[in-house]
Amino acid sequence: xxxxxxxxxxxxxxxxxxxxxxxxxxxxxxxxxxxxxxxxxxxxxxxxxxxxxxxxxxxxxxxxxxxxxxxxxxxxxxxxxxxxxxxxxxxxxxxxxxxxxxxxxxxxxxxxxxxxx
Length: 117
Prior knowledge:
Blueprint (H helix, E strand, L loop, with lengths): L5 H13 L3 E5 L16 E5 L10 E5 L7 E9 L4 E8 L3 H10 L6 E7 L1
């Protein structure tokens, strides 16, 4: 078995971020298009011209630190969509990471685990 060191995983994600445009389509304070009671507490979007498990761009949470440093990922399972994904946390403060984690664990239908770099 060939096990890839964790650094290689993070390095590849860094390269995806470096070469991709970040599109914020759900700014902090806006509501989810299908669930109006769900308000985004951190800017949310995707990496343009990438694809994730749901066929859309790789999801990102963009924090207020002002850099494009990948801080963590959150791995989610969504029973309503019947899918799982990873979402990238870029430039997030510790408070923003906590908000993202809470948001992905509030519903009985979605749960997430966070892996910090």
